[in-house]
Write a structure and sequence with these properties.
Elements: H1 35-38, H2 74-85, H3 108-114, H4 132-149, E1 153-155, H5 161-178, E2 187-191, H6 198-204, E3 208-212, H7 222-228, E4 233-239, H8 251-260, E5 264-268, E6 288-290, H9 293-296, E7 311-313, E8 325-328, E9 331-333, H10 356-392, E10 409-411, H11 423-432, E11 439-440, E12 450-452, H12 460-478, H13 483-486, H14 499-504
Parallel strand pairs: 2-3, 2-4, 4-5, 5-6
Antiparallel strand pairs: 1-7, 6-7, 8-9, 10-12, 11-12
Length: about 525
Amino acid sequence: MLNNQGRPTSAGETDGTTHATFTGNRALIIEEALLFESGRLEVTGVDIDEPEAFTPRLGGLERKVPIGLPGFAEPEAMRHFVRLSQKNFGIDTGLFPLGSCTMKHNPRLNEKIARLPGFADIHPLQPVSTVPGALAVIDHLAHYLKTLTGMPAVAMSPKAGAHGELCGMMAIKAAIAARGEGETRKVVLVPDSAHGTNPATAALIGFTVESIPARPDGTVDPADVRKALRPEVAAIMLTNPNTCGLFEKDIIAIAAAVHEAGAYFYCDGANFNAIVGKVRPGDLGVDAMHINLHKTFSTPHGGGGPGAGPVVLSEKLAPFAPFPYVVNARVLIEREEEVMNGETPFGRLTAFHGQMGMFTRALTYMLSHGADGMRQASEDAVLSANYIRVGLHDLMSAPFGDQPCMHEALFDDSWLKDTGVTTLDFAKAMIDEGYHPMTMYFPLVVHGAMLIEPTESESKASLDLFIATLRDLALAAKRGETARFSGAPYHAPRRRMDETRAARQPVLRWTPPEPVKDAAE
């Protein structure tokens, strides 16, 4: 059945009429209550014997009142979480176009390998002598990361992208201190087109951040970098490809200027998926770069699981890699007294040796793709983004002109002027069409930004449907169909919230509702 806009009717929608259901459910769209609303405090699905008398060892910090968690039978608990999972949008549900996030397909082969005994049940406190296979995996993966980046060293312990940034910048800070310039070089240059966490990372460890503006084509001008360079500058943090989806074509000149000034070049690797097998950052003059294994080499982030952010280091920074680090398949350096060859690590960044599950997935991805497969993945990611850019460029405005992009296509909101529709409205309407919205309002250098990254995972048919959907929404906005946008999403389990209020006045604890009094009272 088609509705009055020529589209198939959806759940809860008929030919002009709707009706409420007794349960609140809409066929297979189940209304799911909170655990605290549906569970029972006095029961549990597990029988646990009362403990024998004992003396607490918590120093007076033991719980004085019941914990207050609701109890369920196993079928109830299973149904609750399965129903919640059906309300989530994930990469296994459909195209996930979050720009700068690389939400690509996660091959099930990688998951199978990560769950093998010996990998899945390894414990970080096991003696090193019992885990030579794990060290071999780390060493093998490290070899490929160094090969792909053209860098001589890699720190494997950082747990995610921002953690990797911290590692790289701490190595730079340690190297500067070793030269006796720790008290003078306190400034870090961060282009406006850099990844969003870069300035926060620099500020966290005591640097002062100065921004470098983007030129009209969205890239960094070496002349602007040279103007900012002086003896107080410790480093530049540049993302390439940058968060406008553009390759910094003058990166070699920028690196040369930075090094001539005695500073270091940190390159954010969040967008490495666009250039794997095509460009080696080490050849561009990069001194440190983190790599999001959970983006570039499968296991997209966003699922609540662990990440991994190894940091490749240049020859100048290699001596400052943090503990612990793998020397080879049987040797792990964990503390300062074990350091060899006069190296001077800045210390311990994290307790253990990295994320084993991410290491096994990433290595499986690399081995199954091979060098040619990884290169093709990068080429296909760039092709997909440009296919979307061309498919929408006549309706949606690009802030830096109709130039080819890398792995993501960037649009601004100037095409929505006078329509009464905002970037947020447009994104919410995408939810009604069954798509996760793209990255909104980022990068900050673009007003009302819409950043779309399809990755290499999508087929042409998938991209064609996505483009057609966005074209339909764009035409509706230009026709003045504001009601389709202002109240969206209409078909999601929950309608649009007041996001400003939710951010400023979050409700972090469930409280039971006030009992309803009888009329006689």
